[in-house]
Amino acid sequence: MDIKTIAKTISLIEDNSNQKKTILSKLYAKTGSAHRIGITGPPGAGKSSLINILIQKLRSKNKKVAVICIDPTSPFSGGAILGDRIRMLKHYSDPGVYIRSMASRNASGGLSLASSEASDVLDAHGFDVIIFETLGVGQVEIDVMNEADTVAVVLVPESGDDIQMMKSGLIEIADIYVVNKSDRSGANRLTTTLTNMLETNPNPIENNWDIPVLNTNALSNKGIDNLLDSINEHFRYMKTEGVLAIKTNDRYERQVKSTILARLSHFLWNDKNKTDFLKKELNKDISNRLSPIELVDLILKEEQY
Amino acid sequence: MDIKTIAKTISLIEDNSNQKKTILSKLYAKTGSAHRIGITGPPGAGKSSLINILIQKLRSKNKKVAVICIDPTSPFSGGAILGDRIRMLKHYSDPGVYIRSMASRNASGGLSLASSEASDVLDAHGFDVIIFETLGVGQVEIDVMNEADTVAVVLVPESGDDIQMMKSGLIEIADIYVVNKSDRSGANRLTTTLTNMLETNPNPIENNWDIPVLNTNALSNKGIDNLLDSINEHFRYMKTEGVLAIKTNDRYERQVKSTILARLSHFLWNDKNKTDFLKKELNKDISNRLSPIELVDLILKEEQY
C-alpha cells in the first residue's frame, strides 16, 4: 500500500466513514510488529529536531517510520506548531516515511482512540516504528502517550523552572528521559534532579526497567545513537518480560471501551426521544427542572439501565 | 449548612456514594445565584496570590467565596502545588470561605463533572462566588474552565515565551486577560500582543463582550479592583444578553451527558457477560482476535444498539 492510500485510509477512519468498520476489522490481525514510541515534552524542548534525526537514523537502517503529530485544540496554534515541524518535511518524498498531524477537534471517541486506530493501520502496513509526538502535559496528551509502548520525555536545561508542570503526570509515563540541548548550562543539574527523582520506577508493570536519563543535542547530533539504543533496549525488555503483551492487551481493551462509549453516546443523542426529554427540561426555569441526575434516570429507564 | 457539612456533602458526591443521587436531586433547583469564575494560566503566574486578594476583597463586601483548586494528575506534584496554595490557608477559619482541592484521579465521569456538581452544592448553599483554579492548558483543565461563567486567564510578562502553549486552547476560553506581575519588563509588550490578538472575540455567544487585557500586581495590590470590576461587569453582561442562561443550560446538558456515559460505562463493565467477551479475545493471539471494532458489535448486539 503506498503512502497516499495509507493517508486516505487513515482519513476514512478519522472521519468516521462507513468504511471504517470494514477497514479496521480487516487489519487488526496483521498488527503487532511495530514499535510505538511516544515523544513528549514542553514546547521548545526540541522534540521535532530530535524526531527528525531519529527518522534519519532509522531510515539508514532501512526501517519504515511514521510520525503522528498530535496538535493542541486551538486553531490559532496551527501555524506556530506546523512551522516547528517544517523541518520534517524533507522526508515527505521518502516512501519509507509517513508524517501526519491529528487535531483534537474532529476525533469521535477521543484523540487517543483516533491515534491508536491510525497506528494500527500503519502497523498492519509494515511500518516498523510509529512515533507519536505530543506537546505538554494535558490529560489528552497523556492518554495518547499511553497508546505508545515506549515513552521518551524530552526536557531542556531550562525545564528546571517548569518542574511543577513537568511533574504533573509526565513522570509516571516516562520510560526514557532526554535532556536535550545538553550543552546549555543547567543540564547537569537537571540530569541529577531527574536521576534522584527516579530512584524507583513508578510504573508497576515495568519495575525491572531502570529509566535512563540521557543527554542529547539534536542540532549537533550528540547522544542520538545512545537514545536509539535505549529505545531499542526498552523494546527488547518489554518483549522479554511480557510487558509488551500487557500493553498490547491494554490498548485493545481501551479501543473497545472508547468505541463503545462513542457509539452509545452517538446512539443516545441521535434518538429524538432522548433529546426531547432534554429540551423539555431546558425550557423550564432552574427551580422547576429535574436535577441532571434525575433526568439521567428518566432517560436510562427507557433503556432499562 | 456549615463548612464541615458542605465538605462532607461534596466528598459523598465525589466518592459516588449511595447518597449522591438524593443529595444532587434535592439541591439543583436551588442553584442559579452564584457567579462561577474560572482562573487559569501557566505555573508561576501568581494565580494563588491573585485569588487570595480576590477572596479578601469579596469578603470585605460580605460575599461568600468558595475556591475549587483542580490538581494535575500526578501524586508527585501534590507537595509543590499545595505549597503554592498555603497562603490561602489563612482563610480556613473564616466560615464565609471554603477552599477545596480536587484531583483528577478519583472522579467518575471526569473532573469537569465532579467540579460542576461540587459547585452546584456550593451554589445551592449560598456561596456568591465560586472560583475554579486550574493550572495549564490541557483538555481536562479547559473542560473545567467551561464549567465557569467567567474565565480569567492569568499570564506574566515571561509568558511571552510560552505563547505557543498559551495559545493552545486558552485564547478561546478567556473572557478576561490578566497580565500579572505587571511591573516586570515585557509587560507592555505582552499586553500589546494580547490586545492585537483579540481584535475579535472568538466566542460566538459573546461577540458583544470586549475581552479586556488588565495589568495587575497581586503582591502590591495593583489593579485588583479593576479586575474585580471587570469580573462583575462580565457577570452583568451575561445576564443582560442572555449568555448566562445559555451557559447554565450548556452546563446542565453536559452534566446529563457525562453522567449517562459514566453510568453506561459502569453498567457495561460490571456485567460479567461483557467482560467475558473481552477476556476471551485477550486470551487469543492478535492474529486470531476479533478486531476491537468487531468485538464492540458483538457486545452491543446484546444491547440492541
Strand order of the largest sheet of chain A: 3-2-4-1-5-6-7
Oligomer: homodimer
Distance between the termini of chain A: 44 Å
Mean pLDDT across the residues of chain A is: 85
Query: Helical region count of chain A?
Result: 12
CATH homology-level superfamily of the largest domain in chain A: P-loop containing nucleotide triphosphate hydrolases
Spans of at least 5 consecutive residues with low confidence of chain A: 74-83
Order of helices and strands of chain A: HHEHEHEHEHEHEHEHHHH
The number of domains of chain A: 2
Q: What is the CATH architecture assignment of the largest domain in chain A?
A: 3-Layer(aba) Sandwich
Helix content of chain A: 40-55%
List the main descriptive attributes of the protein structure presented here.
homodimer, globular, seven-stranded parallel β-sheet, alpha/beta, Rossmann fold, 50% helix, 2 domains, 7 strands, 305 residues, 12 helices
Description of the structure:
- The structure is a homodimer.
- Chain A folds into 2 domains: about 260 residues, P-loop containing nucleotide triphosphate hydrolases (Rossmann fold); about 30 residues.
- A 7-stranded parallel sheet of chain A has the order 3-2-4-1-5-6-7, with helices on both faces.
- In chain A, helix 1 crosses helix 2.
- Chain A contains 12 helices and 7 strands.
- In chain A, about 50% of the residues lie in helices and about 10% in strands.
- With about 300 residues, chain A is an alpha/beta fold.
- In chain A, strand 2, helix 4 and strand 3 form a beta-alpha-beta unit.
- Chains A and B meet through helix 2, helix 6, helix 7, helix 10 and helix 11 of A and helix 2, helix 6, helix 7, helix 10 and helix 11 of B.
